[in-house]
């Protein structure tokens, strides 16, 4: 079971190109196990498995890994071919340089170019030709896929120092905090990810059998399931676990487990654009959404499973998270069953 969820915004944004090309997006949603009615709820979220399936449905049906947003079609299998090329690279720097060379074979080019100076390395977005990406989905996906692919290949998340975007802060800009875990800047000159250049010498530790397995669900999984194992956010989520029916560990205990002081941990969480309270709240929200998808579980049981002694308190909290009651949310999800 995955205990991460994805905002309704990204579900709707991912389908814009398909809708424009005349595809039945409601049918695509159903194939991915997502109820079209659920998306009527403004603050709805889907679990990462559903979002991953939706990406694969869109790519397969459209035979376009740019999903109708790009300056041209990007046939299914392009990403896999690039991966087959970079798996033999010795380190992360070689991976990014080789991937860029591969992208240059296609015209117009859509890629990220590596720039290195004395202290830092940057991945800079390069998009030639006209794109139709009104909700920035393609540009966000490009950043996420290149960053997380590199992290996976070297077996450690490449910690970002800064993420910059050459467009205004979008209405869903708050979601960026949980995607990039670093300071954000909008209306910048270029769209770039900046990180410490020491990561460039990190060796590629994956082999071909691992890559073969990885490609069964990628790049969909890269978009829906961030590897947070090296972020403090992810490590705290892991320490809290999924059993909210017993008292949660306190902040001091968490800090001790992570071999840091509470003050340092607070500062690190601030750098990752979050807080201990927010991590607990979002984990509870994601668990509640997961359990509501299991139609056999009474809502009062779900309340206690996610750590609420009073069902009424759970109802209030859930409405704050999603804008609707647990019952209304379940109704939205249920409409997909049996269609």
UniProtKB/TrEMBL annotation:
Residue stretches making up the HTH araC/xylS-type domain: 234-332
Name by which UniProt lists this protein: Helix-turn-helix domain containing protein, AraC type
Residue stretches in coiled coil: none
Cross-referenced InterPro entries: AraC-type_N, Homeodomain-like_sf, HTH_AraC, Tscrpt_reg_AraC-type_HTH
UniProt GO cellular component terms: cytosol
Domain of life, per lineage: Bacteria
Signal sequence region: none
Assigned keywords, A-Z: DNA-binding, Transcription, Transcription regulation
GO molecular function, one term: transcription cis-regulatory region binding
Organism: Marinobacter lipolyticus SM19
Gene3D superfamilies, alphabetized: Homeodomain-like (1.10.10.60)
